[in-house]
Structure formats: C-alpha cells, structure tokens
Amino acid sequence: MTNLTNQESSSINSQQVYSLERKIQKGEFSIESIGDHLPGNVLVTDLSKLATIYMNKSGCNILKHSAEELAAQGPEYFQSYFVPEEIGVIIATYLKMQQNQDSTCVYNFAHRVKTQDKSSYKWYFAAAKLLFTPGDIVSDKILLIVNEVTSMGYIAAKINSVLEEDDWMKKNFSKFCRLTKREKEIITLILTEKTSSEISRIFNISPFTVNAHRRNILGKLEINSISALYKFALVFGMIA
Fold first, then answer.
1. Is 55 exposed, middle or buried (0-12, 13-18, 19+ CB in 10 A)?
2. What does each C-alpha distance from 239 to 19, 38, 185, 234, 235 come to in angstroms?
3. In Å, how far from its chain's centre is CA 157?
4. 6 in helix, strand or coil?
5. What would the pLDDT profile of 78-100 be if each residue is shown by its tens digit?
6. How confident is the model over 142-185, as pLDDT tens digits?
7. Which of 104, 139, 151, 181 has the fewest CB atoms within 10 Å, counting from its CB?
8. In the 8-state DSSP scheme, what is residue 159?
9. H, E, C per residue of 78-97
C-alpha cells in the first residue's frame, strides 16, 4: 500500500479524519491523548482565533517548533509555512464549514508546505473536518490529518492500526460520501419514522421529490432495508 492515486489518498485521509473526530466526539479519547500516537501530522485550528492550537509531535518536528510556539504565532502561522494563494482558499473553505456547521462534511485538499530552510516546498494531502468534543452543539475548530504525498501508503496503514478501524467502515465510507447534505437530513428524518408527507412539509418540497431522494439514498448506499440504513446512520454519526 505504497503507491496510491490522488483519489485513493483523498479517500483514505477523509475516512481517517472522520473516524478520528467521531471517536473524540464520543469521548473515547481526546486529541491530546491520541495525537502523538498517530504517525501522521494531526492538528487543530481554532477559527475564532485563526490559530493552530494543537499539533502533534510529528507535525512539530517538520516545522521545527513546539505546539506552544506555533499557537503563539496566531494568524502569522499561515503566512509562514504555506503558499499565500493556496492558504487563502483553504481558510475561506474552513470559514464556510464553520458557518454551515455540517458535522458530516470532510474537506480534502493538496497543498505545499515550506521545508525547514524555507527555500522549497513539499506537497501534502490534507483532510479537514469540524471538531466536536463531547457536549458540543456548535464548533469553531477544524481537525486535520495531513501527510506528505510520498508517504501516504505507509501512514494510512499505521493510522488505521492505531484507530483500530474496522473493515465495514473503510469499505463503506466512499458510499457515505456520495450522499448530499439534503439526503443526509432526510435519512435522519426517515429513522425518526417521519413519513414522506411529513418530510415534504419540513423541506417545502413535494412527496414525489422526497420519494426520489429515498430511492437515491438506497441506490447510493447499495442497501434495501431500514436496518441497513440505520447502521450507516449510526456508524457515520447521523443519529445518536
């Protein structure tokens, strides 16, 4: 698992940041207790301060600064290590994620990071997701897993090992990603036993459109039962 395509790398990063955030949200561990045990670069950005407030040892070793030093840089951190045009787009996307508060959204991107002597760049894949800790209803923090392009295969296997990710989650994450935001909303309503007529009134759409969404959901997830839909919703955090 060393030579991965860009699409494979993005899919793996997405699944792993999703899994990590879900475990933190459920209180299985904190970012501080798990971060240094993950072989990749794990960090948290606080959008209210526009600062990186946590980075594991792997990331700190690359940037040659402690987590405390990086946090103290505030917004200057983003100007010091990244291409301005790239980081501008990335931060704008973070802010949109903060505004939407979609707990199922994962943002994938490739970007360049300056090396120690700041004379050249290396390419990294990243996956970002809003970070919800136990009890949070709203989040202004972004959790990221970032890995150098050339090391993705090795890193991916190691992270899965640490998170003890099961095969079902890995095999079905790509199906989950096919769902639109509206389809995810409809799934939660279906599982609270709302009828198509009730759902249509909630979204001000026709029952015919709701039924089309239902068919699309079953087709994208490749399932044909409510019990299978419930498993998807439970594993991917759409229901408690």
1. buried
2. 15, 27, 10, 5, 9
3. 18
4. helix
5. 999 999 999 999 999 999 999 99
6. 999 998 876 655 555 656 665 665 667 777 888 888 899 899 99
7. 181
8. H
9. HHHHECHHHHHHHHHHHHHH
Mean of pLDDT values over 117-145: 90
Q: What is the pLDDT of residues 8-45, one digit of tens each?
A: 767 778 888 999 999 999 999 899 999 988 878 999 99
- Rounded to a whole number of angstroms, the CA Rg of the chain reads 19
Integer CA distances (angstroms), 142 to 8, 42, 105, 145, 201, in order: 22, 11, 11, 10, 34
Contact (Cβ atoms closer than 8 angstroms) between residue 33 and residue 162: no
> Residues 179, 217: contact at Cβ < 8 Å?
yes
Tokens matching residue 231: 């498993």
Q: Where are the beta strands (DSSP E) in the chain?
A: 41-46, 51-55, 107-114, 121-130, 141-148
Cα 213 to Cα 234: distance, rounded to the nearest angstrom:
19
Q: What domains are defined for the chain?
A: 6-165 (3.30.450.20), 178-235 (1.10.10.10)
Rounded to two decimals, what is the model's pTM?
Answer: 0.78
